Sequence to fold (630 residues):
Amino acid sequence: MKRFLETINVRELLQPLAQMILFSLGSGAVLSVIVILLALLLDQTAAGQFLLERNKVTILTYTLVNLPQVVLDGLTIGFVYAAIALGYTMVYGVLEFINFAHSEIFAVGAFVGVEFLILLKSFEIIPATSLFMSYLWLIAAILAAMFVAGLLAVSVERIAYRPLRGAPRLVPLISAIGVSFFLQDAIRLIESLTTGQFHRIIPSFGNFDERLVFSKIALGASTIELGIQVKSIIVIVAAMLMLIGLNYLVNATKVGRAIRAVAQDRSTASLMGIDVNRIISLTFLIGGTLGGAAGVLYALKFTRIDPFVGFFPGLKAFTAAVLGGIGNLTGALLGGIVLGMLETFAGAYMSAFTMGAAGAEYKDIFAFSILILVLIFRPHGLMGENVTQKA
Amino acid sequence: MSKTILKLDNVHSYYGRIHALKGISIEVNEGEIVTLIGANGAGKSTTLRTISGLIHPRQGSVTFEGQDISHTEPHLIVQRGLGHVPEGRGIFPKLTVRENLELGAFNLNDKAEMEHRIEQAFSLFPRLKERVTQKGGTLSGGEQQMLATARGMMLKPRVLMLDEPSMGLAPVLVELIFDIIKTMNEQGTTILLVEQNALMALSIAHRGYVLQTGQVVISDTAENLKKNETVQHAYLGVE
Fold:
């Protein structure tokens, strides 16, 4: 056991954990300060008067009451984005190619996980089971989704990208978009034929929908509730474990060294005796498994999925990868958390801050405006390096 | 006469539509240092790239230890013991010196042997030991060449191909690198050396080939090549 511990590079395990905590606390704190300042300011204006008259509550109180929930929701979706974003960024790092079919890999993962659980329900295995078994079944669903999504990602690369490796850059990109549509319709076809519908709802089981309340703080007439849904904890913990695992694989193992070598210089890597095609397949496998797991986590959190479920999370995760600096693993993590936070904050407060003129449905405009601003001032993303050094 | 370890027979290679090698035939015998000299664009680097499988010949054959490797993938060729230190050194800029060295023996799984080879590399190039945790991209040109050479030796190849090991180096360093190449050869590694600095190359080589626009124009022993008038005029700077 001791010898086993010695071979583990503890630093590579702790570093991403520290980064995640730093990014979460950092973005949460910055956005909280901004909304609190805005609330203080708006309370002096017509918007504040309006809300006070109508709901007998100041904007500041409203903001503070909702803040803990907003931060936690932001984190939850942020970690889902981060897990998907890693798939985009890994493939980009190695091939300098945007795998637009990744969002459908995510959707397939979600469907495999959900169908697996629905199947369990039809055999009446869930929900009538112990709490421990509920967790085991959920893990089984995630593993099944990872397995299928990983294999699918590898096959897509084999069939649709590898033959185009030497072609101009636009060609595999178009192929990826084609694969994306193909997979969407394939899910729709299979679901329609087998179940007669393609909106699926994850069965409710275990204690995942329960809400843990830690404490309540009185604030005038209202109370601030500090609590979190069990499924949000599951999403965050699962995503964290995957991100730490991936970081370890890439930075502290021999395979990871080979991945980094292929990313930096493919032909020299082959002169080192590295099978470049195998490493590329492996990259798609890793990205696919992460995406598949993220699909199940997404379904767990948002309950309902359809064949187009991958589109928005995929687009956002791609945005997160670009925001953080595409090709950079830490950047994808940061970008995911920041984007999740941003859009949740915008969704929660825009309506109150604008007297209902711009509701939560405009949150995406807000998130993407930030992306554009960041890219104007930092074209390589928050943590991206100068791409020019890589010929 | 020792046996032929590497043989190119009438090799034609293309870069896209450019006909870069027009029927090259070369033989390298076990234990030799063979050098390819010639002007820029003569096809020296393309020859090495064709041997190591980075490009495949459209015609002709490459034989290594009696087996045809014309269409073998590069990583499999390396695993057979044919190393290639590429032009421009091919250091991984974002990996540390140590990681670069470890990649040199990528398919070696014996940890003790790995450490042993790294120690050997450090004893040949003490400078690398000082830089062991530094990223490859932060090294000076000379240090990068040392790293590339040391990394090529990590494989313990039977044949090592070196592409322009003296490029951009101070004369002292060139001497050092060439001394090490010579020592490696004396310890049993067969060397195929591509060099701009023809005088230096011929001073350690046993035999040489002169390449011109993708063809072998002269092949002889190093001694004779040094005396050859054409070679003297074109590549040795003798008036």
